[in-house]
Amino acid sequence: xxxxxxxxxxxxxxxxxxxxxxxxxxxxxxxxxxxxxxxxxxxxxxxxxxxxxxxxxxxxxxxxxxxxxxxxxxxxxxxxxxxxxxxxxxxxxxxxxxxxxxxxxxxxxxxxxxxxxxxxxxxxxxxxxxxxxxxxxxxxxxxxxxxxxxxxxxxxxxxxxxxxxxxxxxxxxxxxxxxxxxxxxxxxxxxxxxxxxxxxxxxxxxxxxxxxxxxxxxxxxxxxxxxxxxxxxxxxxxxxxxxxxxxxxxxxxxxxxxxxxxxxxxxxxxxxxxxxxxxxxxxxxxxxxxxxxxxxxxxxxxxxxxx
Length: 307
Fold this sequence. Notes:
single chain, 11 helices, about 300 residues, globular, membrane, mainly alpha
C-alpha cells in the first residue's frame, strides 16, 4: 500500500488536520483568551471562506504546485475568515449576530453547490467569486432580517446527500430541477433527524444534541471526503450511502459516549472545540487536497467534482 492509496491517503491528511486544529485552539486560548464558543465562531467563518475560495478555479495561483498554492489559499481563508467578527464589531453588530450570519452564509454556499455553481456561468475570475460572495452575503442578511437564523440542522444531511449519496436518485437530471429536488430530499431527511432528537428528549439547540450533531458532521466528512467513501467506493447507490451513513452514525455514538460518559467532558465546551476540528477538516481538503499523501492539486470546485 502506497501513501496515495486509501486508507493512508485519507488518514495522513486527517493527522495533519488534528495537529492544525489543536494548534488553532491553543493559540486562540493562550494568546487571545478565546473560549470554545468564540473559537468555533472564528473557525466557521474561516471554513466558509475556504468554501468560497473552492469556487474560484484556483485563481490566481493555477500554476503553483502543492503545497505552495494550498498554503496561500489557507492564509487567505484564515485572514478573511477571522476578520468577519472584527468587521462586524466595527460596524456595530453585537456577538448575537455571529451565529445567524454563519448559519445563513452556509445556506448560501449550500445552494451554490447543490445547483452546480451555475449562478456565475459565463463569468471569469475574479468576477465569478465576487458575485458568489455577494449572493451569499445578501441572502444571509435578508434571511436575518426576515427569519433570523436558519438553523443549520440541515447541514449534516446536506453533507450526506451531496458527498455520500452523490445526489442519488436525482443525479442524472439537469439543473435547476436537480438542485431543487436535492434540497427537497435534504429537507425530508432533516425532519427525520429532528424527530430523532425529539424522541431522545432533546433538540438541536441543546448542548448534548449540538455535540452529537457536530460529531456526526465530522464523521460524514472524514469518511466521504478524506477517505473518499473507502472501502465502499465502487458499491452502487443507495447501498453505498446507507453503508456510509451506518458507519458514520456508529462512530458518532461511540465518540459521543467516550466524550460524555467515559471522560465526562462538558458537551457544550467540547462541541465548540469539535467545530474547530470540522472547520480544519473541510479546509485542508479544499485548499490542500490529500497533501502530504498526494502532492497534486486538490479538486477545484466541490459543486462540480463531488456530484
